[in-house]
Design goal:
By secondary structure, the protein is an alpha+beta fold. The chain contains 29 helices and 19 strands. It starts with a helix and ends with a strand. The chain binds manganese (II) ion.
């Protein structure tokens, strides 16, 4: 250690930047900590040494960034370990310091925070949608462990955005887009409005510098022009408030550049037409004071009725609370007045972070409440079958929608996104209630299940034990939670359906083979055919994983009487099973795992264009889109739905082709060479020659339809080929 570092303990004077952080910490009564200097100083020195010699792109010492991040965290009233984590946040990533070293010096908690930040930093943001969502998932999962990691990352990002001008234009753009798509929505969700607004402005400035400058210029001249009238109205408010004898703090502020610009875009207005750029915030001690002040203001100024919002009685999902009212000044300026308590004010500025310090007391409760959506999110993440785009929906759709507030019959308040239906409400109350919902009453009247709820109504859900979630619900539910739960129970009932189908197939086949007497044996001893229980045997038959013939062969290996009874067509059937084996399934109208059956008339196999036809009672039957047996209905009829094969990239599917050619020497060699030159594998080859005509049936393993058509064209060009066609029917 250098002598200079010891100076503070000798002379008692710390460097200025260090003192700034201490000052911020001690500004907060609850967090005031007389040990903060002692705790923070070693981290200050450690980080300074670790980053010694490193420079930022601006040419300034890297360490200044670490200090700036710690200062922001202190301003947000984070606990001392988070601030220490902030000073050290780049140590693992950018210096040779290891996790163990940090852990030894500053304890496990600080080391884990830094480690978490390092891991978040390693996430590469990619505009390709799926990847992006995956990355976000990782980010959230790490947040679920300790939200402070995300808050340090926010401070890091805010400072990086503030100093973005030193980076190359390409980098500026990448970072600004990432901030816009990931950090800003997240800050909104966590209720960190102040941060979000700062980030949005920096993004706006980076991505649209010209537009930003224009708004900035307009804003400045407006402020200059109206300063007198604004001052007048502010004073009038103050004089009236003073008579109430309430302690208050009045802050004035202007709308952010980005929100002004957003408003201009959304409402297609010029700057001159935006009248509400000025806002007044009144912060008081108690909730009662908020309402007293509101009453007083409404006495002296005319409020705009539609713009009055009571977020104290009904807080936003992210915990935001405040009274909003808008009054009009004599010069026609609209002024939004926000009235709230100190507590609400802090929550509004720093959101979840405001509640962190109550750790140990009632923290879990308030944090739980504020990140309720996080739990919903984790539920979706824990469901393996949910896909990343669903996650994006949770972020994107839920995020920017307003909420509706409705009540349960016992008066519990339920918050839902705008446009939610009784089904969304039912799932919000309880999974069971959602699954069994048959009808709903809004304020005592029966309404359709797809009707949209509006704020203030009381919803009663009527359930029935025999009800099951319907796929049709997916068309109108709003919340991701409801959607996920509907799919989940839908899959369950689909399994039951498959078992039923399996039983039917088994009985029918046994009856045809006159072996119905074996049914009981098969069902009571599923282990004979290698199944754990009756149900899994029936499901397996129902979904076509195993044929009845295979079950019989396994169960009665010495008895092959039944074999001759299976008709010739069975060989083809097994080809179709083979072809379908390598496919993940069929997705109908974008929904997976719907009860489907593959039609027997045209036997679609992977690669064919297909269409779903809704049958009565037997789910969706899948045909080739050009199947002649499809009922003649307008293709836009409700009963037709889009369907597509879900083939994983790496997998190949089997396709069968029939070649007719003049027999000649070397024909077979030419054909196999043509096939292998396209890197397609031959699974089986069957050839017959009659009257100097060769007829071949080849099963190919191909990765996609394009490749298959390529093979077909190659074979068509071989000398002597008369016809090459896809195998269509038995
Ligand atoms: Mn950093």
């Amino acid at each position: 250690m250098k002598i200079a570092d010891l100076i503070p303990t000798v002379t008692g004077s710390f460097p200025n930047d260090f003192n700034e952080i201490i000052k911020s910490i001690n500004q907060n009564q609850i967090y005031k900590n007389k040990n903060s200097e002692k705790l923070l100083w070693p981290a200050y020195q450690f980080s300074k040494h670790s980053h010694d010699g490193q420079k930022r792109k601006s040419g300034k010492p890297y360490f200044e960034h670490c200090i700036a991040v710690a200062k922001l965290l202190a301003d947000w009233h984070m606990d001392i370990n988070t601030i220490i984590g902030g000073i050290l946040h780049d140590c693992i990533e950018d210096t040779p310091v290891s996790f163990e070293e940090l852990s030894n010096e500053f304890g496990e908690e600080v080391a884990s925070l830094v480690d978490g930040v390092t891991k978040l930093g390693g996430i590469e943001y990619d505009t390709r949608k799926e990847k992006q969502a995956e990355n976000l998932m990782k980010m959230f999962l790490s947040m679920a462990k300790d939200i402070r990691v995300v808050i340090i990352k926010f401070a890091d990002r805010l400072h990086n955005m503030k100093t973005i001008e030193y980076l190359s234009l390409i980098k500026q753009r990448r970072i600004a887009i990432e901030t816009r798509d990931v950090y800003s929505p997240l800050a909104h969700r966590l209720g960190m409005f102040e941060l979000k607004s700062q980030l949005d402005d920096l993004v706006f400035k980076t991505l649209q510098p010209e537009k930003y400058k224009k708004v900035d210029k307009n804003l400045r001249s407006r402020i200059l022009n109206r300063s007198k009238s604004l001052k007048k109205i502010t004073n009038k408010i103050k004089i009236n408030l003073n008579e109430l004898k309430i302690n208050y703090e009045l802050k004035t502020r202007f709308k952010s550049h980005s929100s002004i610009y957003q408003k201009m875009l959304n409402q297609n207005k010029d700057f001159a037409e935006i009248h509400d750029i000025y806002a007044i915030r009144i912060v008081v001690k108690s909730k009662n004071d908020c309402y007293s002040i509101l009453g007083l203001l409404h006495q002296f100024f005319t409020p705009i009725a539609e713009r009055f919002k009571d977020y104290i009685a009904t807080p936003k999902i992210n915990g935001y609370q405040s009274l909003h009212t808008t009054i009009v000044s004599s010069s026609g300026e609209m002024i939004e007045i926000q009235i709230r308590t100190e507590d609400m004010d802090r929550t509004a500025e720093i959101g979840v972070a405001a509640h962190w310090k109550y750790k140990g007391k009632d923290s879990s409760n308030s944090i739980d409440k504020h990140v309720k959506w996080l739990r919903d999110l984790l539920m979706i993440l824990s469901d393996e079958s949910s896909d990343p785009s669903e996650f994006m929906n949770l972020l994107k759709i839920d995020l920017f929608q307003n909420e509706v507030f409705v009540f349960t019959p016992i008066g519990e308040l339920i918050q839902l996104p705008l446009g939610s239906t009784p089904i969304d409400f039912a799932y919000e109350v309880h999974t069971e209630v959602g699954d069994r919902c048959i009808s709903a009453k809004v304020d005592g009247k029966i309404v359709p299940l797809n009707s949209q709820l509006s704020s203030g109504s009381t919803i009663e859900i009527i359930t029935s034990d025999s009800q099951k979630p319907s796929a049709a619900w997916l068309k109108f539910v709003k919340t991701t939670k409801a959607r996920t739960l509907i799919r989940k129970s839908y899959r369950k009932s689909e399994k039951e359906g498959s078992a039923k189908l399996g039983k039917e197939i088994l009985e029918k086949t046994l009856r045809r083979l006159r072996m119905l007497d074996r049914l009981q044996i098969l069902l009571s001893s599923p282990s004979l055919s290698g199944f754990e229980n009756k149900e899994s045997l029936l499901i397996s038959i129902g979904i076509g994983e195993i044929t009845v013939r295979e079950v019989l062969q396994k169960s009665f290996p010495s008895d092959d009487n039944f074999d001759i009874d299976f008709k010739k067509g069975k060989k083809e059937k097994s080809f179709f099973n083979l072809a379908r084996n390598n496919v993940l399934g069929i997705s109908v109208d974008g929904i997976d795992n719907i009860l489907i059956n593959l039609s027997k008339c045209c036997n679609p196999i992977p690669g064919d264009e297909i269409i779903g036809f809704v049958t009565r009672g037997k789910g969706v039957s899948i045909h080739r889109s050009r199947c002649k047996n499809l009922p003649i209905l307008n293709k836009s009829s409700d009963r037709f739905i889009e369907a597509e094969w879900k083939i994983s990239d790496k997998k190949e599917f089997f396709s069968k082709i029939n070649i007719v050619a003049e027999d000649r020497k070397g024909l077979l060699k030419d054909i196999t060479e043509a096939i292998s030159s396209t890197k397609v594998n031959i699974n089986s080859l069957d050839t017959k020659t009659q009257d100097s005509l060769a007829s071949m049936i080849i099963i190919l393993a191909v990765s996609n339809l394009k490749r298959l058509n390529q093979v077909i064209r190659k074979i068509e060009n071989i000398k002597g080929t008369l016809s090459v066609r896809r195998f269509n029917k038995n």
